[in-house]
Write a structure and sequence with these properties.
Chain B: This is Cell division topological specificity factor. The structure holds 2 protein chains of 2 kinds. Chain A is of the alpha/beta class. Chain A contains 13 helices and 8 strands. The chains are: A alpha/beta, B alpha+beta. The structure holds adenosine-5'-diphosphate and magnesium ion.
Chain lengths: ~270, ~120
């Protein structure tokens, strides 16, 4: 039986889709059969980040409405044999997702896949609730910034009260914090909250710290999950986070500014 | 002393520290509301209506809060009465025998704080 993992945050633009792409590719490259689903109905984007936008024929909403079979809508990744993408509709709105429909699709996916990654839309309304409702685990994507931390706190409250696990009195959804767009140099200057500050406030286990990194934009430009870029610090950080998710204990990296000389700085700029 | 030092802000707390402190305060407040049962707004409204039978009270002068302490929870009702209201009878229901003692304490302490442990 596959595990359902939701990438959620409350706030938009913090890195949920980037993280969904990275995690699903990371899990698949380690041999776990993984599917990543775009729950952001109407604002389809996961397909672009995964680089499969031209292969979308049927989508999640078609499957829910019975207009297509699940296997017709699943897109097999061209790079990783264990990775599949279930894109969402661009024309429908978030009301197109019904709880029964989502449950039916997830049940079918649980039989075929080890991990089912749900890329949540922003907000705490219908679309976001639908993405988190059936979750077994939640990765809370947070930026070290006041509004993002506050929204993460809200979404934690929602997970603890309005998820299926909460409503049915099962074991609670397992929560993980993924702190993204972390800039150690700004932290050092006292301009950005440090990891410990955010941990103290949200009080959930830390899965990873992803540094602010130019390689994320470059990866999205070409439709490659950043975790597949071997040169990228963000990619390294995501690889570590996936390892921790699978139970490895790895030291946290990229939390202190790199001490580099002028020459290295120059090299990096031009890289 | 640096001649420009007066230009620097008084608070030397780094902005990241200020962010953390502000978040702690606002989240302590929001968490207590998030866990509140659905009936709390209705309860608040009905209490307000009862009080309004005796004194004029603005909506925002009454707060109802439920806090959890392990196996019990505390319902906290805070009512800020206006200074004059404590002695003004709005309805005949207030004609009950009140001693002058009562009025004195009420006037001294306009914020009445009623607490009940459930
Ligand atoms: N670690 C990072 N470093 C730099 N930019 C990032 C990082 N993570 C995300 N971004 C950028 O932030 C923006 C929002 O990311 P996205 O994953 O779409 O967020 P969400 O899905 O939460 O709305 C994108 O432009 C993305 O390239
Ligand atoms: Mg997104």
């Amino acid at each position: 039986m596959g595990k359902v993992i939701v990438m959620t945050s409350g706030k938009g633009g913090v890195g949920k889709t980037t993280t969904s792409a990275a995690f699903s590719a990371g899990l698949a490259s380690r041999g776990h059969k993984t599917v990543v689903i775009d729950f952001d109905v109407g604002l389809r984007n996961l397909d672009l980040i995964m680089g499969c936008e031209r292969r979308v024929v049927f989508d999640f909403v078609h499957v829910i409405n019975g207009d297509a079979r699940l296997n017709q809508a699943l897109i097999r990744d061209k790079r990783l044999e264990h990775l599949y993408i279930l894109p969402t509709s661009q024309t429908r709105d978030k009301d197109a997702l019904t709880r029964e429909g989502v449950e039916r699709v997830l049940t079918e996916l649980r039989e075929q896949f080890e991990y089912i990654i749900c890329d949540s839309p922003a907000g705490i309304e219908r679309g976001a609730l639908m993405a988190l409702y059936f979750a077994d685990e939640a990765i809370i994507v947070t930026n070290p910034e006041v509004s993002s931390v506050r929204d993460s706190d809200r979404i934690l409250g929602v997970l603890q009260s309005r998820s299926r696990r909460a409503e049915e009195g099962l074991d609670p959804v397992r929560e993980h914090l993924l702190l993204s767009r972390y800039d150690p140099e700004r932290v050092e200057r006292g301009e950005m909250m440090k990891v410990d500050d955010v941990l103290e406030i949200l009080a959930i286990p830390l899965l990873g710290v992803i540094p602010e990194s130019r390689s994320v934009l470059k990866a999205s430009n070409v439709g490659t999950p950043v975790i597949l870029d071997p040169q990228s610090a963000a990619g390294d950080a995501y690889r570590d986070a996936v390892g921790r998710f699978l139970g490895e204990s790895l030291p946290f990296r990229f939390m202190r500014p790199e001490r580099r000389g002028l020459f290295q700085r120059f090299l990096r700029r031009s890289a | 002393m640096n001649i420009l030092s007066f230009l620097r802000p008084k608070s030397t707390l780094p902005t990241a520290e200020q962010a953390k402190e502000r978040l702690k305060i606002v989240l302590a407040h929001e968490r207590s509301y998030a866990s509140a049962p659905d009936y709390l707004p209705r309860l608040q409204n009905e209490i307000l209506q009862v009080i309004a039978r005796y004194v004029e009270l603005e909506q925002d002068k009454l707060t109802v809060k439920l806090e959890n302490f392990g196996s019990t929870s505390r319902l906290e009702v805070n009512i800020d009465l206006p200074k004059t209201a404590a002695s003004v009878a709005v309805s005949p229901a207030n004609q009950a025998d009140r001693t002058s003692d009562d009025e004195a304490t009420a006037a001294d302490d306009p914020a009445t704080d009623a607490r009940a442990v459930s």
